[in-house]
Design goal:
mainly beta; single chain; 74 residues; 5 strands
């Protein structure tokens, strides 16, 4: 393998997180580790969409996921 992908440090499962690129906030519910590409995390948004369905899980590269600060107000 010519190229090595640097692993990003992900918050723990269950942590409240934000996707830096889209601003989506939610709970980190799953992570994946890959040999040939960057790791990923799944963010589950709270609530439901306009049709009353739960939001789909939002998969993003691990480097875009940051933990919310505890007690921070929006």
């Amino acid at each position: 393998m010519d190229r090595l992908v640097k692993a990003a440090t992900l918050p723990h499962l269950g942590a409240r997180v934000i996707d830096r690129a889209t601003g989506i906030e939610g709970t980190l519910v799953a992570t994946t580790r890959w040999l040939d590409r960057s790791d990923e995390g799944a963010i589950l948004r709270p609530g439901v969409d306009a049709d009353g369905h739960p939001w789909p899980v939002h998969w993003v590269p691990a480097a875009r996921i940051v933990a919310e600060l505890e007690g921070a107000s929006s």
